[in-house]
Amino acid sequence: MRSLLAYYAEAVMSAAARGAGCTLDCSGRGDCLNGTCLCEIRYAGDQCAVPNFSYHACIGGIFLLVAFICAVQLTICVVSEYRRLKAPTFLRACKVTTQKMLYFVAFLASLIRGAYFVSPSAFQEGWATSLLSAYYPLLMSGSSLIVCFWAEVFHLRDIRWERPRFISKTFLAFATFNVISYSLLAAEVLTTNFADTSAEKKSFYQHVFNGFYAVLLFVVVIFFLIYGVEVYFKLRGEFLKETKVCTVISPRPGPSTAAEGDEAQDTLVTKQGVQTDLADNNGTVDPRSVNQSQLHQSRVGLLSQALMLILIAGFLASETLSEFWKTKVPVVSRNWHDVVFRLAEIGVALWFPCVLWNSMAPERLWLLNPRRLLSKQLDDATLAELLARHHDTKNVETDSLVGSVGSVRDCWICYDSSRDEPLIRPCRCTGDVSAVHHECLRRWLVESASTPDGLKCKVCNTPYIVQETNRVEWDRGFTFVHWLRTALAVACMCGAGAAAWLVVQLFASSVVRVLVAGAALLVCYVAVRFLGMNTVTAYQRAKVSSLRILTEPSAEHSLATISQTVTVDITSKAALSQALKADEK
């Protein structure tokens, strides 16, 4: 009897609550359907008065996971740079670079947005709005930094893009734009939290500032697409041009000090800067010399980020005009609007750690090194034509070749003069390091296949001319060590999943379950990333093992001293000085 009375009492209270909810118009956060409030996805309860904790926990958890990944990548970047320094110090390792700044901005934006969504009721209404708005200036900081970096890629020449650096010529534009965006954020914080304004005016000011953010974000997207299309679609820019330092050996002017009849003569060794340009006269690049895989990856990444930025700008503009349309649209449509909005925000934040996946070698990222779009590997069909074009062009980098007739050369790798295998000269080095056995050099390249400049000479920095074959040496890439590492990674993922399932079954506390699930996901993420990098490295080793290295074309050795020269355009003194400094580094 007592339970029956309790049941009727609960039913009466529930009906009263539903009636009250519709009487209060569902707190302005939902629609009344048959006496029941259908709340917006951000709110819950009979009167839509409390936040929807499931929705906020899901969105906030994803943002916090992105922030954690960015923090790990930033730490790995600092540690790897510390290890590369000859005189390592912590301050030099923390030197500001474009990569580190992007990691930091993505980390801070995701952390702030995650902090709000995880505990929306922990902040007052004004500060919660400020936390939501702080995401957009940080987002524009990262996007504008990429735009400034691409502007330097397009306009500046003779910059070593494969080295970690920060923007230089465009820093003033970057700082000015960020001063504007953060000034708007400071004005919004002062208006909504410190100024004595009514709730209606606070809502009005919030809509106005959202409109400003939408305009600034739209400006960023325009320049993002302008420079992105020029660099990654049209393949234009000064990054295709480079000043090389060449050694020129010429007879010294004036009377010779050598005895009469002696073949020796005074020579003058000078350094000259030679401008190289990978584009044709009409400004286009031969598609056969482009790394199509990197090109397609860069285009997909560029378009995806641009699309998500446009969506966010559009959603901010719609929030500015929400007073005119939100009350006329059903709650289901408003919920879809909110979900797509949050997914776009998550996608933009997640884009940064995805395109900056290689924390230890930023020169392998298409975002930070546009020269990754260029390929030096040639197939059988294009080899002869490109070599002929290489000889015909005048605007090409060259070195003076000095050698003696009949001089005996040894392989600079094995130094075994008893081998019958002929020696090749794959680069422009002279002296004792000019000749090498083909098999020795191929083994050398296989061991250094994981490095970004593996197919370049470590001395003269000349790319090797290689010829691809139809076969791939799988056994040289996928070795026993590779399969052992793969088995360990799979075992770690399975063990983490099994341990998480066991803890969830044994413990009823939601906190313990969430922590264990997060730890298992982290272990799986690290294992999957290690597995992917290990597989890519093995494939690169197998691919390099099947390459055939060709000798560098050179003039025949018919004289005691040979000097190979070409007609070049000597660059300015400033460009030559900058190239010499880069060569010394």
> Which residue ranges are poorly predicted, with pLDDT under 50 across at least 5 consecutive positions?
1-5, 15-21, 256-265, 271-275, 377-384, 390-407, 554-573
Residue fraction in strands: 5-15%
Number of strands: 11
Strand order of the biggest β-sheet: 7-10-11
CATH architecture of the largest domain: Up-down Bundle
Radius of gyration: 32 Å
Structural class: mainly alpha
Number of domains: 3
> How far from one another are the termini?
90 Å
What is the CATH domain class of the largest domain? Mainly Alpha
How confident overall, as mean pLDDT?
A: 73
Oligomerization: single chain
Q: What is the CATH topology of the largest domain?
A: Rhopdopsin 7-helix transmembrane proteins
Task: Write down the secondary-structure element order.
Answer: HEEEEHHHHHHEEHHHEHEEHEHHHEH
Based on CA inertia axes, which overall geometry fits?
A: globular
Count of helical regions: 16
Largest sheet: 3 strands, mixed
Organism: Loxostege sticticalis
Keywords: Membrane, Metal-binding, Transmembrane, Transmembrane helix, Zinc, Zinc-finger
GO molecular function: zinc ion binding
Transmembrane segments: 53-80, 101-123, 135-154, 166-191, 211-233, 300-319, 339-357, 483-504, 510-531
